[in-house]
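Late entry, evening session. Most of the bench is empty. Finally got around to the prediction I had been postponing all week. Sequence below, unchanged from the version circulated by S.P.
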Amino acid sequence: MKLKPRLGAIRTHLGLLAGLVVALAVEPLFAHANPVTAQLADTALGVLLLVMFLSLCRESWERRTGMLLFIPVLASNLAHAALSGYDDRLAAIAFHGTVAVFLGFAVVVIVRQLFRVSIIRVDDVIGAMVGYVLAAMAWSHVYGVAYILAPTAFDVNPEIVPQLANWRLRRILFDHLSFTTLTTIGYGDITPVGSPMYALVWIETIFGQFYMAVVVAQLVGMKLAQAIKGGDARAER
């Protein structure tokens, strides 16, 4: 069942983008905080992004699915915090895996909505950017799983190797790897040296190019069509 857009819905993508920027900027500040403070910050940011994502959903099944996918994210995050100091690899894998699935679903929802609009607005263009950022964040958690399962598949600059020992710094490091891979910048401070990283990196690179060529091209094409139609309408007056 489709739900009617709420008031102010035309700015939901802008709000979510702002929330993502804040989350990515604030996360490093809590990397060295005490465990309780860091856990509270993680939970608060996660819930904030969930609420902002749900505000984008226009159909009830999207909201229900989003809520169901977020529950294991929260549970695995809390389990990882509770097992701190013990063998928490399973909890870490569960956290990275469930976050990747949740963010992947968010990308699907956003792209699906973009392909269904008939009139392109500024907020739709921002929505494409949000989908791009969320995709990069999803892939960073895939890399998190890969690192736990095969740490030797990464060649890391010796100056940043100590960051891998810190749970939150490691997540930030993989965010960096994902964004540089998706945009094909590839600074070289983290490089794949074996499976499964070879496959993951080229798949993300292809996805990034596909996203720009299909999703962004779709928006540009529709915007041009609107401009041509508007020009024709003015010429007829």
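Two things to note before I forget:
Strands lie at 154-156, 190-192.
Residues 9-236 form one domain.
Will write this up properly tomorrow.
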